[in-house]
Amino acid sequence: MNIFESFRIATRAVLANKVRSLLTMLGVIIGVSAVILLVAIGTGVQKEITGTIEGLGSNLLFVFPGQINTSGGGFGGPPQQGHPFSNADAKLLGSRLTGIDAVVPVASGSATLKLGNKSGRSTLMGATEQGAQVFSATLGGGRHYNRSEVDAGARVIAIGYTIKQSLFPSSDPIGQVISVNGQRFTIIGWYQKQGGSLSGDQDNQAYLPITSLQSLTGVNDVRIIMIKVTDPNEIDLVRAQVKRVLAPRYQDNVTVMSQDQTLGILSTVLGTLTYMLAGIAGISLLVGGIGIMNIMLVSVSERTREIGIRKAVGARTYDILSQFVIEAMMLSVTGGVLGILLGAVGALALSAVVPTEITPWAVGLAFFFSAGVGIFFGVYPAWKASKLDPIEALRYE
Amino acid sequence: MDERPSVLQVADVTKTYFLEGIEVRALCGVSLDVHEGEMLSIMGPSGSGKSTLMHIIGLLDHPTTGRVIVGGEDVHGMTPNQLAAVRNQRIGFVFQSFNLLARTGAQANVELPLIYSGLPAGERSRRAREALERVELGDRLRHTSSQLSGGQQQRVAIARALVTNPAIVLADEPTGNLDSRSGIEVMALLQELNAAGITVVVVTHDANVARHGRRIVELRDGVIVRDEQVPDRLDARDEMVQLGMNTAHAPSSAPSPGSGS
Fold this sequence. Notes:
The structure holds two protein chains of two kinds. Chain A is of the alpha+beta class. Helix content of chain A is 56%, strand content 18%. Chain A contains 13 helices and twelve strands. A six-stranded mixed barrel of chain A has the order 2-3-10-5-7-6. In chain A, strands 8-9 form a two-stranded antiparallel ribbon. Chain B has one domain (6-242): 3-Layer(aba) Sandwich (Rossmann fold), CATH 3.40.50.
């Protein structure tokens, strides 16, 4: 008997119990679609985040207080909290470093922005006038704050797109005065829509001079110092300089990270997360496989007499084995294909909310894993069927 | 004695079962030669070992001791797959309970042995239809078991047994589940096949059924107590005429109610 006949017989058996076959497949369908969907979400989010960081440019250095062990591509342990930087540290770096375009101290906070009876909570980003060179936001209208406003701690603010839409849905915000935590700020600019990122909704951020932010919050800390290097090839030289300049004040409690390193760490973390999601989904695929084995065992005992008849008229062990293995595979592969379709449709539907990307490896893996599940869980019942004694099988009622 | 070559030989066959620890000796040294073109009835009450003998002859069961020779080949030591091939090529089975595949059409049932012989689909279909025409069911190729009467189902089973051109057709109580008219029809068919040169072995407890054969072997408690030619062989065609049945063509509709004999 050739393999084509085994397929024909298996098809008949699957179609003979349509509802049962479908319910059996459901386990695999859910498992496979979960793998596809979760990996699609994981990959989509990872791509978006790394894209955002790459968008910052490869010539940026981020200087944090404290130490983060980045050896081996992962976190070596919890970051040690260091003493926060101050504006003076940024000034010192600006005067001592060579081969740089800008040194920008950045502080952040959150505040309630209010206009008339409309208000909302937003993130405030405080920086010097060079902030425009290191932030990725693009002006939609108005201007950035300038050096004299930074020096004076002027109450000027540039708002993100979401803030503009909620406070000034139809009018031009430039020159308007809003309340920021109860203090009056004049709007000098607004930014175009950017979308979500690592630090939440970038469109719900407002940008103001770091000095203004510090007087608003009463905290003079600088969270991070961003450095724009002139030549990306010399980024390691600049990094060494930063360490040297800050050593007298902070010893080793300074972390200098480039975009590459940040990407490396994030990719590792997000990649691990994606594999974890796939693993969890894989467990449900395994459960689906056990469902197939269960049904195949039922199917074998139900069809004991049929097996006896087939053996009496000349079916060999291999014929019975292949018939049942192919039947199990058919259930799991059909379930796998349906699961892939369902997962893909789900990923497309979800892409309105979460970034998703269907990866070929996840589709391939899910497909071959489900086929493997069929073979693995189908072999035992099929082997049991093929070993049946023809006379015992014929006597079976 | 019969001078024709033997298609099947059993020599000093014994079979011992263990049922819940109790030894059951089903066959205690049976020797038998089945010659080409013979129509042999193996007769005996239930428990005589006739079914066991039939299963051993049909290579569905192994003897405890003794030899089984099919077409000159000793089957001792053959693997299950080799035995399956011998069953497929040389033996056709007709069972009391028909043993057709459920939800499967008549033609597909008849094709079954040919699938395992590895014949291409076109050839299978042609031979299956020929065999069904031979049992007068050429017009019911797609009917499933539930759409056929008992007599018709048994005729499908006979077609399945014939389709491989076996050396021997083994029928185990072929009339056991049938009313008397359908039973006579089935016996007429088996006699017809035998007249056409096919070796037929019928296993039955019914002396009347056994008398359709040319030779009767009677088993009792696992030994042969009688092995003789039948002097007054019954001709199923004559019986059909006596019962007023149409002998030109076996009826293809559901059989008329059994008259009980």
